């Protein structure tokens, strides 16, 4: 496949690469991770000022009408810096859900602010017992006249501790694991009845558990019919994560190759040992395989919802998950003990790659999803 970037896409990639390179030194990343926000608010503003948060949105909504390919180019560079900002959660997932389900008024009020970087949104779809099944929803919403009140608990809400708005899935009809009867609501995280338990994740980011006690929410779309949109936009998020993983893997491979060239044993660089050369080749092979699948995912991310699209996205996530874990493990092995220390950046790349391999489904989950699509076909 001849995948060449257009002049505009190359400029976009160069802009994102330069910004990440200038801001995200490893030492700065540690500072950002330790801050109250858990990321750089200044870097988030720069993403908005350069138009990078506006790429996926239509021109009518203040965006540039970018496709999954443009999103992949940005996510790959954010992956190279293992950036902490909730770009995927706010711009791609929350923005995509509002764009698909929202009324004209909701789009006008929220999407312009997300596109400019003024509003950081979060999405609360997972629950403690859902285990990758986004239709497993125990949080409930009950209508009270013209308003809705939500009660329940949401887990792993990345960026939820700093979000200006949070999109919450809640059940308005049906049983706990029914795909029908799921609705989506916009809540103010500072509203009465909302409490959050903030924590740091393994890869240095911050998220929260969200507790809702009779919280007023604004319905997004039609009650009980949100699951199809959640599934579709989750596919776009998966494609974005594949791009981020490729960026992180590429830098992890670069770090490992440089280490093999400089670390000496018995008077020679350890990269001279054939067995280590073979393992380095295997890392690069996994990276190239993952890159091909990330490109596939990016090209079909904005296609119409279909079983074929879902199957190919699951296949891409499966391959990228396997490659991400392999590169992470080999990076640690080839570096030796230094790769397990907090002070070395290779450890942080490995942790982020492992976390990506679990977001929106691990390899077993997507292998089963892919096989189910084959049975249906």
Brief sketch in words of this structure:
It is built from eleven helices and nine strands. It has helices spanning 7-23, 26-34, 41-49, 68-80, 87-101, 104-116, 227-262, 274-300, 307-335, 345-356, 363-376, and strands at 121-124, 140-144, 147-158, 165-171, 182-187, 194-200, 206-220, 264-265, 268-269. Belongs to the acyl-CoA dehydrogenase family.
Write the SSE topology:
Layout: H1 7-23, H2 26-34, H3 41-49, H4 68-80, H5 87-101, H6 104-116, E1 121-124, E2 140-144, E3 147-158, E4 165-171, E5 182-187, E6 194-200, E7 206-220, H7 227-262, E8 264-265, E9 268-269, H8 274-300, H9 307-335, H10 345-356, H11 363-376
Parallel strand pairs: 1-4
Antiparallel strand pairs: 2-3, 3-7, 4-5, 5-7, 6-7, 8-9
Describe this protein's structure.
With 377 residues, the protein is of the alpha+beta class. It is 51% helix and 16% strand. The chain is built from 11 helices and 9 strands. It has helices at 7-23, 26-34, 41-49, 68-80, 87-101, 104-116, 227-262, 274-300, 307-335, 345-356, 363-376; strands at residues 121-124, 140-144, 147-158, 165-171, 182-187, 194-200, 206-220, 264-265, 268-269. The strands form 2 sheets. Strands 1, 2, 3, 4, 5, 6 and 7 form a 7-stranded mixed beta sheet that branches. Helix 1 runs parallel beside helix 4, helix 7 (227-262) runs parallel beside helix 9 and helix 8 packs antiparallel against helix 9 (307-335). The longest helix is centred in the middle third of the chain and has 36 residues, at 227-262. The radius of gyration is 21 Å and the shape is globular. The chain starts with 6 loop residues before the first helix and ends with a helix. Its cofactor is FAD. Keywords: FAD, Flavoprotein, Oxidoreductase. Residues 123-215 form the Acyl-CoA oxidase/dehydrogenase middle domain. This is Acyl-CoA dehydrogenase. It holds the Pfam family Acyl-CoA_dh_M.
């Amino acid at each position: 496949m001849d995948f060449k970037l257009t002049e505009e896409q190359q400029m976009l990639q160069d802009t994102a690469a330069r910004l990440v390179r200038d801001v995200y030194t490893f030492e700065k990343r540690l500072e950002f991770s330790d801050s109250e926000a858990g990321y750089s608010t200044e870097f988030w503003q720069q993403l908005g000022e350069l138009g990078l948060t506006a790429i996926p949105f239509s021109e009518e909504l203040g965006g540039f009408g970018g496709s999954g390919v443009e999103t992949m180019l940005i996510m790959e560079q954010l992956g190279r810096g293992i950036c902490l900002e909730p770009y995927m959660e706010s711009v791609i997932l929350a923005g995509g859900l509002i764009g698909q389900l929202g009324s004209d008024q909701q789009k006008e009020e929220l999407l312009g602010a997300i596109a400019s970087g003024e509003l950081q949104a979060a999405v609360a779809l997972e629950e403690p017992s859902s285990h990758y099944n986004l239709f497993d929803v125990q949080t409930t919403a009950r209508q009270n006249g013209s308003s809705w009140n939500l009660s329940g608990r949401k887990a792993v809400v990345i960026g939820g501790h700093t979000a200006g708005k949070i999109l919450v899935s809640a059940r308005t009809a049906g049983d706990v694991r029914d795909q029908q009867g799921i609705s989506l609501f916009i809540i103010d995280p500072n509203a009465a009845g909302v409490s959050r338990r903030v924590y740091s994740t393994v890869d240095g980011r911050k998220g929260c558990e969200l507790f809702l006690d009779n919280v007023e929410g604004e319905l997004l779309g039609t009650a009980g019919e949100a699951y199809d949109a959640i599934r579709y936009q989750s596919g776009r998020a998966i494609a974005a994560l594949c791009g981020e993983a490729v960026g992180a893997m590429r830098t992890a491979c670069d770090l490992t190759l440089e280490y093999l060239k400089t670390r000496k044993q018995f008077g020679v660089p350890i990269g001279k040992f054939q067995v280590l050369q073979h393992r380095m080749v295997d890392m690069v092979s996994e990276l190239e395989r993952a890159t091909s699948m990330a490109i596939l995912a990016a090209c079909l991310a904005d296609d119409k919802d279909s079983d074929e699209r879902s199957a190919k996205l699951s296949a891409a996530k499966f391959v990228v998950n396997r490659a991400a874990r392999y590169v992470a493990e080999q990076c640690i092995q080839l570096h030796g003990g230094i790769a397990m220390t907090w002070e070395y950046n290779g450890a942080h790349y490995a942790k982020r790659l492992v976390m990506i391999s679990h977001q929106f489904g691990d390899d077993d989950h997507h292998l089963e999803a892919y096989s189910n699509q084959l049975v249906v076909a």
